[in-house]
Specification:
Helix content is 49%, strand content 8%. It is of the alpha/beta class. The chain folds into two domains: 350 residues, Metal-dependent hydrolases (TIM Barrel); 94 residues, uronate isomerase, domain 2, chain A (Orthogonal Bundle). The strands form three sheets. It has a four-stranded parallel beta sheet with strand order 4-5-8-9, covered by helices on one side. Helix 1 packs parallel to helix 19.
């Protein structure tokens, strides 16, 4: 059966088709948040087969396979790569109305020109075709990135990373840039005394500084922050349940930090105070260097303790959380803004019930100094599908300015995920086309195409200033 993803996929009007094909389609991609491995980019890795590049590490697909009743051996277990692909081919036709069905067919078509729907009937043929191509230089990692017209990719990196592979790629003649993003989540992991002390040891090794108090800890973090900046980093990222803003004194912070260094666990209040303190200090570092800071808020992670102990984190057992977000987020942003230390900020929510909360909160701290200084980020994780993206676009349009939005990202671990930008762009053009059809917007291609170009490319280009 031939794929339904054809020229005007998702484009329901002539205006939508014109906006996409004449304007959005050819724009470069700035993928400012993903989880791609820098080593695989710098070494221009060639994958042996489609399972390795497409299924390995993709917890979206893993969740679907488990739901369909596929044994774990064929997901993260010891089954062969071909057996795992065959099992995914059995699952795919049963993902109808799940975004995975669209993504699967879109990726097969854009990278390999495959029109057939992946199923048990086509699995053998598709496995052979894709593997034959993937083993060639034309399908190396750098070639795949270039094929999708990617201009910038921002990886997600721990402060202790030596950025060796970013440095290697910077010295090569490539069509794109790979830029690190500073992710200090481990540097805030004070709830786990043993893990945090082991992390302190790693920081001491890489910095040559003995960490004996909170000031020396911040000295090392700043040293790493400087190092990242020297290597082109202009963006930080935090993955948090919610922003913590528990009040504290300097004495309380020093006492809590020395307590954890002495390998004593902190109580709940001490944990929250120390995390609140560190989060603000990191934000001040970002502002001083003119970085963009990102906050991914609202996931409840590692829900299945049995399978977590067996498979580890990031294996598909996270979900939407229902935390209170508004008050603490307001307090945090206001504390930074009050001292004029609020950097450009992107806020992502995972719970769709928080859409209006995040969209209106961003508007509170736009001060006219920068276009779209505080961004409500693109629909994230469980929300980066047609319904979630449309709701994000509609809410942003209603309470903010869609014209200032910096657009889509992949947030992916797969080098075959860049067509998600196309998915977003088609949806955006379709929304605008339908608004014209309903008489809600003027049928002015010049006006509409300027909006599309800004949202899909120019706004991100100007906002991040990666050049």
């Amino acid at each position: 059966m031939r794929s339904h993803i054809q020229e005007n996929f998702l484009l329901e009007t002539d205006i939508a088709a014109e906006l996409f094909h004449n304007y959005a389609k050819q724009l470069p991609i700035i993928d400012y948040h993903n989880h791609l491995l820098p080593k695989e980019v710098a070494t221009d890795k060639i994958f042996d087969n489609i399972t390795q590049i497409w299924l390995k590490g993709d917890h979206y697909k893993w969740r679907a396979m488990r739901t369909f009743g596929i044994d774990e051996n064929f997901i993260t277990g010891k089954a062969s790569d071909k057996e795992k692909f065959i099992k995914w081919s059995e699952t795919n036709p049963n993902t109808l109305r799940n975004p995975l069905f669209h993504w699967t067919q879109l990726e097969l078509k854009r990278y390999f020109g495959i029109e057939k729907i992946l199923s048990p009937k086509t699995a053998e043929e598709i496995y052979e075709i894709t593997n034959e191509r993937l083993r060639t230089k034309d399908y190396s990692v750098q070639s795949l990135i270039a094929k999708m017209n990617v201009e910038v990719i921002c990886t997600t990196d721990d402060p202790i990373d030596d950025l060796k592979f970013h440095q290697e790629l910077a010295n090569k003649n490539t069509t794109f840039k790979m830029i690190p993003a500073f992710r200090p989540d481990n540097a805030m992991s004070v709830a786990n005394m043993e893990f945090f002390n082991n992390y302190i040891n790693e920081l001491e090794k890489i910095s040559g500084v003995t960490i004996s108090n909170v000031d020396s800890f911040l000295e090392v973090i700043l040293q790493r922050h400087d190092y990242f900046h020297e290597n082109g980093c202009r963006i930080s990222d935090h993955g948090l349940n919610y922003i913590e803003t528990t009040d504290f004194t300097s004495l309380e912070i020093e006492k809590a930090f020395k307590k954890i260094l002495s390998r004593k666990s902190l109580d709940t209040i001490e944990i929250s105070q120390l995390r609140s303190f560190l989060l603000k200090e990191f934000a001040i570092m970002d502002h001083k260097k003119g970085w963009v800071q990102q906050y991914h808020l609202g996931a409840i992670r590692n829900n299945n303790s049995r399978l977590l102990s067996k498979l580890g984190a990031d294996t598909g057992f996270d979900s939407v959380g229902d935390y209170n977000q508004a008050e603490s987020l307001s307090k945090f942003l206001n504390s930074l803004d009050s001292s004029n230390q609020l950097a450009k900020t992107i806020l992502y929510n995972l719970n769709p019930a928080d859409n209006e909360v995040f969209a209106t909160m961003a508007g509170n701290f736009n001060d006219g100094t920068v276009k779209g200084k505080i961004q409500w980020g693109s629909a994230w994780w469980f929300l980066d599908q047609l319904d979630g993206m449309k709701k994000q676009i509609d809410t942003l349009s209603n309470v903010g300015l869609l014209s200032c939005f910096i657009g889509m990202l992949t947030d992916s671990r797969s080098f075959l995920s860049f067509p998600r930008h196309e998915y977003f762009r088609r949806l955006l053009c379709n929304i605008l086309g339908n608004d014209v059809k309903k008489g809600l917007l003027p049928s002015d291609i010049s006006l509409l195409s300027n909006l599309v170009t800004d949202v899909c490319y120019r706004n991100a280009k100007h906002y991040f200033k990666f050049d």
